[in-house]
Design goal:
This protein folds into 2 domains: 76 residues, Helix Hairpins; 97 residues, Transcription elongation factor, GreA/GreB, C-terminal domain (Chitinase A, domain 3, Roll), CATH 3.10.50.30. By secondary structure, the chain is of the alpha/beta class. The chain is built from 5 helices and 8 strands; from the N terminus they run H-E-H-H-E-E-E-E-E-H-E-E-H. The strands form 2 sheets. It has a 6-stranded mixed sheet. A two-stranded parallel ribbon has the order 1-2. A hairpin with a 2-residue loop joins strand 7 and strand 8.
């Protein structure tokens, strides 16, 4: 049986992982899937109505409804794969207020220095290492959310303070050093943790 070009050049599926999420994420995920199902039902009605209007070759309403159904189907399939591939563990941010700070962990506020190996340029960032999907920033403190499964977080989680480590990031080789680790304050969590939203999933 000949291989299809599409299968030859398709990237392999990512390995199953454990993703830490805030309480309510699984409920939002299920709600997003149900909303897509309801949207598809309405689009099918539009398609049937457009089909009844005559010549399909010039029936733009029929074509638009068909394209919209395909787009919803792709999103539902991608969301279904996202759920099937991963395990989701809900983590209460209130536990972040008193965590031990010997090594960098989910829920800590950290200042990180990154030096690009090629250019020798140094950059400093202050992050709250947070759960999947959180990307807010706090203008008052200058802290940004760094999702625990991002490339930079994956490189620095578990490191103690003042231990330079060479890592490979999407932008290239870099030397990262954790300069400080502390617990967040409740006010910082209130400003940084927005409402839980469904994921933005991409088609394979």
């Amino acid at each position: 049986m000949p291989l299809h070009r599409k299968k030859i050049f398709r990237l392999p599926s990512p390995e199953p992982t454990t993703i830490y999420v805030r309480p309510g994420y699984n409920r939002v995920l299920a709600g997003e899937f149900e909303a897509l199902k309801l949207k598809r039902v309405e689009l099918v009605k539009d398609k049937v109505e457009a089909h009844s209007q005559g010549d399909l070759r010039e029936n733009f309403g029929f074509k638009a409804a068909k394209d919209a159904i395909r787009a919803v189907d792709r999103k539902m399939a991608a969301l279904d794969r996202f759920v099937a591939r991963n395990a989701f563990i809900e983590v209460d941010p209130s536990t972040w207020l008193t965590k031990p700070t010997g090594t960098l962990q989910l829920g800590h506020v950290t200042t990180i220095e990154k030096q690009d190996v090629a250019s020798k340029r140094r950059h400093q960032f202050t992050f709250l290492v947070t759960t999947h999907g959180d990307t807010a920033s706090d203008p008052e403190s200058g802290i940004e959310c760094l999702p625990h499964n991002s490339p930079l977080a994956a490189a620095v989680l578990g490191l103690p303070v003042a231990t330079p480590t060479q890592v490979t990031l999407p932008a290239g080789e870099a030397r990262v050093t954790v300069l400080s680790i502390r617990n967040p304050t409740q006010a910082e969590l209130d400003r940084l943790l927005a409402a839980v939203k469904p994921p933005e999933v991409e088609d394979d």
